[in-house]
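I am writing to request your help with a piece of structural work I have in hand. I am sending you one protein, given as its amino acid sequence and as whole-number tokens for its backbone shapes. Kindly check, if you would, that the fold set down in the tokens agrees with what the sequence suggests. You will find the record immediately after this paragraph:
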Amino acid sequence: MNAREANLFSILTAAPVVPVLTIESTTVAVPLARALVAGGLTAIEVTLRTAAGLDCIRAIAAEVEDCDVGAGTVLDTAHLEQAIEAGAKFMVSPGASPRLVSAAKEAPIPFLPGVATAGEAMTLAEEGFQVLKFFPAEPAGGVSYLKALSAPLPGIRFCPTGGVGPKNAAEYLALGNVICVGGSWVAPADAINQGNWTRITSLSREAALIGRNP
């Protein structure tokens, strides 16, 4: 595992769940991140699906010291460059094009590329990426598919995202080739809209204990 992959591994193993956030307004970004970190979830993914995404990453990177904020839904090299400029600590994509992979290999921050098949995982492993996002996890085969990959692909670790929630997260985390899971349930839209940071911290605290002995 190279230094960049080791850095990503360290970020993603700090807690069992990485919140996946699609934030509509920068005004909630910092208090939301602080609420998640207070509950024990220090690595968060802010998707670039909204116009506010980059500014939210920028604000969190500047104001929430204990948070490793990543940029999600990185689709091309422009997104990659913008995420780095905004201060993202890592980047996440739903898939991986050759051009994006090439740029990510030269980037100063780690990249978590998405895969849905064994072939895609093997291709990225050949490029030096051994920590991968398994997406969309449930539609792509879920726990049974990842379990089947563990023997033939022993050097690859996954972060399953997509259909993962409190009811099945522990099943994923019990697999030896899963280092964490990604999900949005720890930051419900109604709680964000109401500014109910206490509720989000409580949900985060529960999520931080999934798969861990009390």
